[in-house]
Amino acid sequence: MAVRPSRNWRDLVAEEAREVAAGTLDSECAYLADSYSESFLSDTDTVLAGFERDVSVLAAPSGEQVLHIVERVVLALNEVHHRHKSSGYDTDEREQLCVFIDDVLTQHGIDVSRLASLHGVSRYEITDRWRRW
Length: 133
Prior knowledge:
The protein has helices spanning 5-22, 32-35, 38-56, 63-83, 91-107, 112-118. The protein is mainly α.
């Protein structure tokens, strides 16, 4: 099962907090709680959970149906990114989100490479048309 990037980010925040509490990291050097606010993580989780639900109910979907679901998740993530400018998705987060989308689709039997090829892009570009992060 694909692990939501937001879970990984929560784990990083918790680890950093443990390091500060243990005195192995100066609190002035701790930044992850600001980068990954709880509301940002929660909003991201909500969007990704919806994407997982949408993909899980597909039965022999057409390429257009799959791309519509990808478009919806990307547009929703655009909104999260816009609302949380101090957090938002940078390069590392973008890559993790795109891998997550690919993994969820693949785990549900969707040939992402074939789908992307039919639309003239690589599997790693299927979000590009709508992505603003």
